[in-house]
Description:
This protein is mostly beta strands. It is 8% helix and 33% strand.
Amino acid sequence: MLPSSLHIKPMIASSDRDYMTVEGVLENDYYALYPFEKHSLKIGFSKFGEMIDSSTNVGLEYDNVDPFATPPGPGTTPDVPKKYWINGWYINITYFHRELNEWRTVWAGALFADINAYATPNELWLHVDSDTNKDGIENFLDKGFIVNPDRTIDFSQGPFRGGRKTNGTAVTMPITIIYNGSRRFVALLNTTLYDHLDDNETSNDVPLVRIYITIIFNKVKKQVILLKDVKSLLPWKVGDKLRIQFSNRGEVDLGNPECGYTTYEHFWTAHKREGQKTVYNSHWELGTTDDLGNEEPWFSLATDPTLHSGEPTSSGTFDVAQVINPDCGKVFYAAFWPSLSDWEMNGFPMWWRSLDSGDPHSTDLSPEGPSASQVPFYIGEWDFVLDNTKGDRLQFRGVTVYGIVEKDEADDADMGSGHSNVLEDEAINFQLKEVFNPWDLNTAINPDRNEKNVGRNVLIKTGDGKKTEFKLPKEMFYGPTNYTEVPWNEYCVFAERVLVDGKLCVRNVNYTLKDTNGNNLYDTISFTKAPKDGSRIKILWSGPPHSARYEWIIVGIDRSDSDPGARTPDVIAASMVAAAIKNKGFELNLTGLDRKERYGGRIPFVLSTFGKSGDIWTDYMDNMDYMRSALKDDYCEEYPISSSNIITVGGPLANLLTAYFNEFTDAFFVWGVSDYFGVNMDRTEVADYKNKILALTCWSKNAYKDSASKGYAVIATYKDINGTVGLIIWGLKAEDGYWAAKWLDDNIHDMQKWKDGITAIILKIDYSKCIPKVTIVEVLGTISETNFEKEQQPWHPDP
Length: 799
C-alpha cells in the first residue's frame, strides 16, 4: 500500500515542494550507439499534476523549445504570457446522493492558468461558489475563494482568478519523491476531491476520489510517463457509483521567438481507426472506458445522455497527438492509454470543461499558424464508472506520455500536396515503443522470437583515407532475405552500428547487400566519404552464429573491497541460469565479472573504469554528482559488451551491472544505504521503501522486504538505448537469488506461454520448509500490472 505519511523532507526542488524541476542526462551520458540526436529533456511539474514549474518556468524543455512553458528559460515570456500556460487535468464527477435524494455534479481542474491569471494564492485550491455567479451555475471560468488545508473556505478575501479550481473542495499533498537515482526519477502526486455541501463546515463533505499521479522520468529518454490513478472514496451509504470524465489537456506552443510557432497537428485516435497497437490490452486495466450516456437507462434520463461520442471498439491501442514545427525542426507528442473516449486537437474553445458528443472531435488544425482560434490545444478524455467503497471497481488508470524529438520523418497532410500524416520515427518506433511494446520476458527467454534469434558481434577495420567500401562476410547481418528490410533504428530490432574513431555514423553511411549470380557473397558497408587514414572503424552487428545467443553471464565481485572474488552463492545461481538458458535453446558465449578482479585481472569484466584503477566501486562511477556506471564497448576487440545480450546474476548490492540495470527495470531496489559509495545513497523520501524491492507499476506500489522466514527476488529484463539486453536475476539476500535461479530453471519452458508485455516479476520465497516454496507476487509491465493466474486485470487494484 502507498505510505500514509507525506511529512517528508525536500530532496531536490526548484524552490519549494509545490514545484520541481528535474534535468535529463542524455547529452552527457554514455550512449554512443543511440541512433538519434542526444539532447537532454528537462521536466518541470507542480504538486497538483501540471507539467509546469512556475518557479523555474520549465515545463517540457528540450533543445531551446518548451511547448508548455515558452520560451524556455527563467526570463520574461512576452510571446506567451503565463496566464495562457494552460496544462494539466480536469475531472467531472456525477453521482446520486441517497440521503439528499438528488444528483450531484462535482468538477475540479488543475490547469495552472485560466487566461486571466496563473497558479493560485498560496498554491491552494479555489472554491467556485454558485452564490457568486449571476446564473447560479459555477464553472472553471469563474472566480473562486481559497480552500484552506482543513477544507474550510476563506470568504474573507477574494474571489480570485487562477488555475486550480473546483466547485467542491480539494486537498493536495506535497510532492513525494519515490526515487531519484542516477538515471531514474519517480515522484508521486496526491490530490483528494470532496463534494462540499455546507459552506460553514466540513463535517458533511463527501469524499469522492483520490487522484494519484506517478511521474516516471528516465533521464536518458526524451519523454516522461504519467500514471494517473483515480480511486473511488465514495462511502457506500451515500451513493453507489461515480460517473467520471477525466481528461488531460494543454496548450502546445512548440517553438521560440527565433524560429516562430507555426505548427501542423494531427491526432491519431482509435475512434478514427488510427489507434496505435500496444501489448497492453484490457488484461492490464481494471476496467475499460464506458459509454456513460448509456451505462444505466435511468441515469441517461436523469442527466445528459450525450456525455461523449462512444467508446473505442477494441482494446490494445493507444492514441497519439503530434505537433510539428518545421521551422524549429521539432516534434511534440502526447500518447494516451487506453484509447480515449473523447479527444480534441482544437481544444481551446473547450479548455475549461469536459467534452461531449456535440463537440467537433477535431483531429487536425489548419496550417496558418497560431492565432486566437488556431492554437494547438489537445484534450484527451477518458469516461468511466467507479463503484463505491463496497464495490469491486474502485480505480481507473490512465497513462499519458509527453515527449519531444527532432523532426525527420514526421509529416502532416495540411502541409500541402504530396504530404500525409506520418508519426515521427524516433517517437513511435523508439521512445513510445519502449513504453507500449517493450522488450519483455517473453522475448528475452524465447530464442524463436525475431528480436532474439541472433547473437551480437564486433569487427574492427582500419581506414586508409581512400577506401569507401568494406566487404564483410555474407553471414554477418541478419535478415530473412535482404538486410535493407531490417529497420535499423527501431527499439526492439537493434541492427548494426558503425563507429569511426568512436563517433557513430548514422546518416552518412549506406548499408548495401551485394549479390553475384543470385548469391549473397558479401555484405558491404559503403561510406559517402572515405574514413581518414589510420581511423578505427568499429562495426557492431547482429547475426545468427548457430542459434540465438547470450554473449555474457555476469556475476559481481563481492562489494567488500578487502574481499575480492565473485560471491559463491551468485556463481552457483548463475550456473542454474546458464542451464536454463541452454535448455531453452540459447548459446552462451562468455562468463565474466562486473568489475576487474584485483588478483586475477585477466578475467573479463564488463564495466568501464573511467580511467581509474578499478580497485574500488567508486572507480566505476563517472563522478559523485551523477554516480553513473557505464558498460565498456567490447572485450579485447573480439566480444561486444555494449549492445550485446547479457545475463546478470546477483543483487545491486553485490553486482554493479545489476545496479546499472536497476535504474531501468520495473521492479527495482530502492537504495536506502547511507554512505554506500562514499556519499549518501538514500534515493527516496519514503521510509517504507528503503532497502526494499519496489513494484513500480503495481497499482498499489507494493514494496517487499525479506525476513527470517521469507525472501524476495526479481526476474526482469530491459534493453537500453545502446541496444544492450539485460536479463536480470537477483534477490534481496544471496539465498533469495539462488532460489530465483532455481525457479527460472524449473519454469523457463512455461514462461514462453506468458502474455506479451511482462517486463518484470517479483518472487516470494517461503523458507518455512526445507525446500522453499517460490510463488509469484507481482507481474509487471512498463505502465501497469496484470493478473498472472487469470490473465486478466491487475492483482493489486487498491492504492
